[in-house]
Structures are given as structure tokens and as C-alpha cells.
Specification:
The complex is a heterodimer. By secondary structure, chain A is mainly alpha-helical. In chain A, about 85% of the residues lie in helices and about 0% in strands. Chain A has two domains: about 30 residues; about 200 residues, MetI-like (MetI-like fold). Chain B is of the alpha/beta class. Chain B folds into two domains: about 240 residues, 3-Layer(aba) Sandwich (Rossmann fold), CATH 3.40.50.300; about 120 residues, CBS-domain (Roll), CATH 3.10.580. In chain B, β7, α8 and β8 form a beta-alpha-beta unit. The chains are: A mainly alpha, B alpha/beta.
Chain lengths: ~250, ~375
């Protein structure tokens, strides 16, 4: 009881402290001329933000659409021996610096949206494939044996047993992948991909702090939002029996 | 019902066959326990029945039909399967776990859900509480009950059980075994049951198949197996206390002296003493007007005292029901420090005596035969 009262007290304190902090930040932002700058750039932020989101959606969507089936394929019997090779290949891919991937992508596909999307897609693919692979491999053997013994077909085992039980790990892979993706999109500006990177890099080049933050803050907010959306999906779409969050 | 003909399995790269020319038949409605040390081939033998493992040679028939005639997946849907690790699907609710085979077979949803509720009631779990829970919310014993229900949900004639109660604590195991035997009494499934526990086998089996190094060493009823082990391996495996194990297979009626003499309250002690001397007994039971057990008189009292039985009888420390097993009977005798018990039926009507000597004689008989 006393503990609960104490907890409530601490929570209230936190709320007040957060509000004070936000107010202080706002006051500072206004005084330093940041907010007026951002307000001036509002149209740009909206336009570039939309571009940013489109880049994330297309490259991330493609990576999910390719990565999950690829991960599943690599767990199928007969494919096991290729799975380690494939994973090594993807791991090497992941060690190539982000900027280098984009540069390579540009040197092959030229300048514009296509190489940007391709580069982001490659970067996003690894965590999705490896988590799908790991998630399905971690499904206990005896569940598969029980399912096989009761007469479930391969497909039924995949859909009714393997995927639902691997879902949490697969989601974790998608979350990581999208966080990487949102954070990398600003670099896509360098190869003509657009997005909020335009404000950031122009701000740096022009030594305009406000312009840079007008790109950086929405990017950060976007990353937080995507992660929040994913966590909500994780919470609500994974069956309660295998959902550690519920 | 399940017939194995010369079934052999050699795993790739193995020097010795894991299962070596095994032929046996499990009759319809019986529980056959495959028993043996680990690595003896019992599990492999069972898994060849539902083709989780394909035999290297030999044939397996179920209900006269070769199991390789049809697709393995179709075959497995007609054979219930229970494993030691239970293997309930954690992503599905209890009701969906139970209904998994009916769902695959395309049963009407309302029908399969009603069946699931009915099955839960059979194992004394309230459907209202448990149907929509997830496996992780149940205890190990409850989960294994659900594992068994899932196997019988689509009412397959054959059940394959791979050490189904092996991972459950001893107390719950006893309860679940009894519960399962009670269900089996009405279900009459043909069951192949893998175990490494001789006590479980003796309790559950109509027949026991003892395996060693891939070979079927002895296939017999539990009582025959304990009374006449075929060779050294079997007698070692069933244990040096195998005769004691037979106690739980035999019923009080098997060792009981039927239609014994008895006296009534208004008989004289002299008549009682005469009756005892005539039969060579040292005590006699007194029954009431409807044949119910009331007490007893011993020979010395009857000789030394005069009067009616009703005024001089002693109360019996305990009685035993005729359908109890001899293990319980002997245990009861030891507990009360007596060498005989009066046997009664459910209405406490006197049916006969069982004596320690009679039990010893019964158990010894088999050995003299052999």
C-alpha cells in the first residue's frame, strides 16, 4: 500500500518534470530562433517528410516482402545447408558501411529514387531474414513432431505452428530493420533520393542550425513513431499464448 | 488391429539395426506397452506405425490395411498421437489445440467445439474456465491431460503414446494413469504405449512387449511376464521384486476362499467352535440377517466360553472389497497386523476370506509351474 502511494508520487513527479523540460526546451527553441525557422520551412518539411515516408515504405515493404519468404525458404528441409551460406553472405553485406552501400548502388543504378530504394532495401533485408530464420529454427522440435504425428501437412505446420511461434522474433527483426531504414533515409539524399536528408545536409552545408534541426527532429520523430506502430502491431497481432508482452 | 510383420529399421550409417525383424500384433481394444531400456528400439518401432520413421523392410498393417497404401499425412490423421513433451501449441487456445485434427478434417465447428467441452468434462476440467485459456496457463498435469484429449478428439480407433506420462510428478502420474484407464474402459481404443517404467507397464498394459537391442524379447500379458520371464534379460528388467509386482495385477477374488462358513449372533459358541474345527479355521466371521459382516469369534474364545456368539464376538479391525488388488490387501493386513481379512462386496455382504498364506500360495504356484 505504502509502496503504491510512493509509486504514484514518483510518477506525478516525473510528469511534472517532463512538462517543465518540454516547456524549457520550447522556450529555448523559440528564443534561439529555431521554431520560427522551422515554421518558415514547414512546407519543405511536409513535402520532404512525405518523400521520406514513401522511401521507407517502399524499401521497407520490399524488404519485408522478400525477407520473410526468403527466411522461411532457408528453413525448409533440403535448404538447410544453403541457409548458413546465405546468412554469411547477408552478414558480409551488413558489414559494408551504409554510405558505401548507397554509393555502390548509385554506381550501378545511377542517381535518383531507384538506387536509393535499392540501397535501403539491401540494408533492411538482413535483420528480417536472419530473425525469420532464427525465429523458425527456435520453434521447439517437439511441437513439430507433435504436429507431424497428428497429420498436419508441411504447409499447415508452417502456418499454424512455425510462423505463429516465431512471430515475436520476426517482428523484432522488422522493428530493427525499420529503425535502421528510417535513420538511413537521410543519406539517400546524397544519391538523389530526396527525403528529410535534404534539410539536414543543406543545413550543414549552409551552416544553418535551424534548417538542419528542421530535418533532424522530424526524422527522429518519424523513427519513434514507426517503432511505436511496430510495437503496437507486435502487441495486438501476436497470439496471447506466445506473446511475452501480454 | 495393429500388426507388424518382420519390421526392420536400419538407420543410415548404423552398424546394427535399431529394430530387428519385429513381428507382433496388438488386438483391438487392448493396451500394448512397448517396454525396454533406452535405445532398445521401442520408440522407433512405434514411430514406424505412423510412419514418422519409414521401415527399412517389413510391413505394418492397421485393421488389415497396409500403412504404406496411403499418404503418410492421411494415415496419421487416423492415429492419435501423444508425446512425452506434450507438444501443445502455445499459440493456440486449449479448445483450438483439442480441435486441431477435427479442424484439419473439416468437421463442423459447432460439433468439434461441443466435443472439446465434453472431453474436458471427462477429465474433470471445467470447460467454462479452460476452453479459452492458453497452454502456458495450465499446470504440467493439466497440459498432459489436454495432450491426451487432443489425440482422441477426432475419435481415432488407434492411439500411439510415446512415454505420455513420463514427465509428470509421481502423484499426478498415478492420478492421470487411473483417469486414463477409466476413459479407456469406455473408449476401447487400440493403444501402443511406449514406456521404460515396468510399474507403469504392469499397471496400464493388457500386453507387454519387452525390447532389447532392437529385438522383441517377450510379448506377453503382464502377469505371465512377471510369473514366467523368458530369459535372464527379462527377469533382470522386470526386477527382483517381480513377484511383489504381480500383487497389483491379481484381485482379492483370485486368492479368496469362496463361500466360507459363517455364524450368526444367535448361534451358540459351541456350534461355532465345531464349525471352525471342522474347517480347520482359527476364527470365524459373524454375519447379520442379510449376510453383512458384523464381527468375528476366535477358536479359543469359542472353546473356553459358553453362550451365544452375539454376546462374545469381537469387531473386525478392517475388511477388504473383493475387487481390490492383492497389493492393497497385503498392505491392509500389514497395517492392521493380521494374517487374514474378511472380504466383502460393495454392500458389505460377506463373500469370503483372504489369508496371507493363500496369497503366498497363489504367487508361488506360477513358479512351481515354471
Amino acid at each position: 500500500m505504502a509502496e503504491q502511494v510512493a509509486m504514484a508520487g514518483i510518477q506525478r513527479l516525473w510528469r511534472i518534470a517532463t512538462l517543465v523540460l518540454i516547456f524549457a526546451l520550447g522556450a529555448w527553441a523559440w528564443a534561439s530562433g529555431l521554431l520560427p525557422t522551422m515554421a518558415d520551412l514547414w512546407d519543405d518539411i511536409v513535402y520532404l517528410g512525405r518523400q521520406h515516408i514513401i522511401l521507407v515504405a517502399i524499401s521497407g515493404g520490399l524488404a519485408i516482402a522478400v525477407g520473410i519468404p526468403l527466411g522461411i525458404l532457408l528453413t525448409r528441409p533440403g535448404m538447410q545447408r544453403y541457409s548458413n551460406i546465405a546468412l554469411q553472405f547477408l552478414n558480409i553485406g551488413a558489414t559494408i558501411p551504409t554510405l558505401a552501400v548507397l554509393a555502390l548502388s548509385m554506381s550501378i543504378l545511377g542517381i535518383g529514387d531507384t538506387p536509393a530504394i535499392f540501397g535501403l532495401f539491401v540494408l533492411t533485408l538482413l535483420p528480417i531474414v536472419s530473425n525469420t530464420l532464427a525465429g523458425i529454427r527456435a520453434v521447439p522440435r517437439h511441437l513439430i513432431e507433435a504436429a507431424t504425428g497428428m497429420g498436419l501437412s508441411r504447409g499447415q505446420i508452417l502456418w499454424q505452428v512455425e510462423l505463429p511461434n516465431a512471430l515475436f522474433v520476426i517482428y523484432a527483426g522488422i522493428r530493427t530493420a525499420l529503425a535502421v531504414n528510417v535513420g538511413t533515409v537521410p543519406l539517400a539524399f546524397l544519391i538523389g533520393g530526396g527525403g528529410l536528408g535534404e534539410l539536414i545536409f543543406s543545413g550543414i552545408a549552409l551552416n544553418e542550425f535551424g534548417m538542419m534541426l528542421a530535418g533532424a527532429i522530424p526524422t527522429a520523430l518519424l523513427a519513434i513513431m514507426v517503432d511505436f506502430l511496430m510495437s503496437q502491431m507486435q502487441l495486438w497481432t501476436i497470439p496471447r499464448g506466445v506473446n511475452p508482452l501480454r | 488391429m495393429i500388426r507388424l510383420e518382420n519390421v526392420t529399421k536400419v538407420f543410415p550409417g548404423a552398424a546394427m539395426p535399431s529394430v530387428d525383424h519385429v513381428s507382433m500384433e496388438v488386438p483391438e481394444g487392448e493396451i500394448c506397452v512397448l517396454l525396454g531400456p533406452s535405445g532398445c528400439g521401442k520408440t522407433t518401432t512405434m514411430k514406424m506405425v505412423n510412419r514418422l520413421i519409414e521401415p527399412s523392410s517389413g510391413k505394418i498393417f492397421i485393421d488389415g490395411k497396409d500403412t504404406t497404401d496411403h499418404d503418410a499425412v492421411q494415415l496419421r490423421r487416423t492415429l492419435g498421437y501423444v508425446i512425452q513433451q506434450i507438444g501443445l501449441f502455445p499459440n493456440k487456445t486449449i479448445v483450438d489445440n483439442i480441435c486441431i485434427v477435427p479442424d484439419i478434417l473439416g468437421w463442423d465447428r459447432a460439433k468439434s467445439r461441443a466435443r472439446a467441452a465434453e472431453l474436458l468434462q471427462m477429465v474433470a476440467l471445467d470447460p467454462g474456465i479452460y476452453l479459452n485459456r492458453y497452454p502456458k496457463e495450465l499446470s504440467g498435469g493439466q497440459q498432459q491431460r489436454i495432450g491426451v484429449l487432443r489425440a482422441i478428439a477426432a475419435d481415432p480407433p488407434v492411439l500411439l503414446m510415446d512415454e505420455p506420462f513420463g514427465a509428470i510428478d509421481p502423484i499426478n502420474r498415478e492420478i492421470i494413469q487411473d483417469e486414463f484407464l477409466k476413459m479407456q474402459a469406455t473408449m476401447k481404443k487400440t493403444i501402443m504405449f511406449v514406456s521404460h517404467d515396468i510399474d507403469e507397464a504392469v499397471k496400464m498394459a493388457d500386453r507387454i512387449a519387452i525390447f532389447n537391442e532392437g529385438r522383441l524379447v517377450q510379448y506377453d500379458t503382464p502377469d505371465n511376464l512377471l510369473a514366467h520371464p523368458k530369459n535372464r534379460f527379462v527377469s533382470d528388467f522386470v526386477g527382483s521384486d517381480r513377484t511383489l509386482k504381480r500383487l497389483q495385477l491379481l484381485k482379492v477374488t483370485d486368492a479368496m476362499m469362496h463361500d466360507p462358513p459363517s455364524v450368526r449372533a444367535d448361534d451358540t459358541l459351541a456350534a461355532a467352535a465345531a464349525l471352525m474345527e471342522e474347517n480347520g479355521h482359527s476364527s470365524i466371521v459373524m454375519v447379520g440377517p442379510n449376510g453383512r459382516v458384523r464381527g468375528f469369534v476366535d477358536l479359543r474364545t469359542a472353546r473356553e466360553t459358553k453362550g451365544k456368539v452375539g454376546e462374545n464376538h469381537e469387531t473386525l479391525p478392517t475388511t477388504i472389497k473383493t475387487d481390490e488388488n492383492l497389493r492393497t490387501a497385503v498392505s491392509t493386513m500389514f497395517r492392521h497386523d493380521v494374517t487374514w481379512l474378511a472380504c466383502v462386496d460393495d454392500d458389505r455382504v460377506f463373500k469370503g476370506y483372504v489369508t496371507l498364506r493363500g496369497i503366498t500360495h497363489l504367487l508361488g504356484e506360477a513358479h512351481r509351474d515354471g
